[in-house]
Amino acid sequence: MGNKRTPEIRFSGFTGEWEQRHIGNHAEILTGGTPKTQIKEYWEPSEIPWMSSGEVNKKRLSSTDNMISFLGFENSSARWVKENSILIALAGQGKTRGTVAINEIPLTTNQSIAAIVPKEELHYEFVFQSLEKRYEELRLISSGDGTRGGLNKQLVADVVIISPSIEEQIKIGDLFKQLDDIIALHQQELTTLKQTKQGFLQKMFPKEGESVPEVRFPGFTGEWEQRKFKDFISKAGKKNTMGENYPAYSVSNKVGLVSQSEQFDGSRLDNLDKTSYKLVNPNEFAYNPARINVGSIAFNDLNKTVIVSSLYVILKMSEELDNEFILQFIKSQFFIDEVRKNTEGSVREYLFFENFKNIKFPYTSSKDEQTKIGTFFKQLDDTIALHQRELDALQETKKAFLQKMFV
User: Fold this and answer.
1) What is the pLDDT of residues 171-191, one digit of tens each?
2) What is the pTM assigned to this prediction?
3) Domains in the chain and their CATH numbers?
4) At CB < 8 A and 24+ separation, what contacts does 250-256 make?
């Protein structure tokens, strides 16, 4: 941090250096408690909002997952935290420790949360944004190595906030609150789109034991069948024995085929022995037999041949199947359930080619209907991808402003 006391970007009309302030000197630090869970009367009736540390990941709390009774409040170390306080997880699973949130309602918390209740010279939104920016730093403070240990009231009180006048804090806080609201709106739209797609996947493929889907494009009337992939697939993936310089790819469960040059430092690929890699030609599928249960399968729509690790299974669908139709089925819960039925292995489960052949899928003999369904879901996927890119861009914009508008 050095001696820098002014931000790179600033609202007009504000000058002068920012000041160092220990949080403990300019805010009240509160910790909570948990009523005994074995005493039912401490939790019923549900009268007081009570927050656990995992809920800091909500970022802005207008409700809590749990409630306690007035009796539970009186017989525990839970304390009221007034609205617009900053809540920081002192401990918690995974990446929870060090995460901050704001409560939009008065509430109580468990003992794994410290509430920072700012005094007049600190604005809650400014403090929240400052601490959110310093997440990694807070984790290091808590343990010395960022991996184990926990925060406590004193460590939180000792954290230094570099801040301007309260008027400038308010303007900065308001700007980032508006950004957060826009990000939250985009996140909700993205979540709604994903839920919409899952709903259509459930309705546009027949349920188990049924021969027609609940929702269907007009003009199609025939019954569907339950078929196995063994009637429609062939094994592919010849070895790149000549060491041809095809681009090397991996399969991601989020985006499908990913160039290894984007994943790794390019120099790591310079001496790569490509002779053991497998070819994935256009319109072929590649999957990781140990990770297909989490969606690690991809379709080569790149219009070029690529190579992947010899660990992958490569297959090709027959002309009777529309590739996009099958790709969408593969993204459905029906497929995941079928994978679980056909994997083998005691410690790690694998789905080899012979197992894949036994997977059942809902089949309509109308290639036109398959294509319509595949195209419909592809358009939904494209819309989802666009919203995801917009959300990512907004989040990156916020990160950039945090770096430039805070000291």
Assistant:
1) 999 999 999 999 999 999 999
2) 0.85
3) 1-12+166-205+212-219+365-407 (1.10.287.1120), 19-163 (3.90.220.20), 225-363 (3.90.220.20)
4) 250/308, 250/309, 251/286, 251/287, 251/288, 251/296, 251/297, 251/298, 251/308, 251/312, 252/296, 252/298, 253/291, 253/294, 253/295, 253/296, 253/297, 254/295, 256/298, 256/299
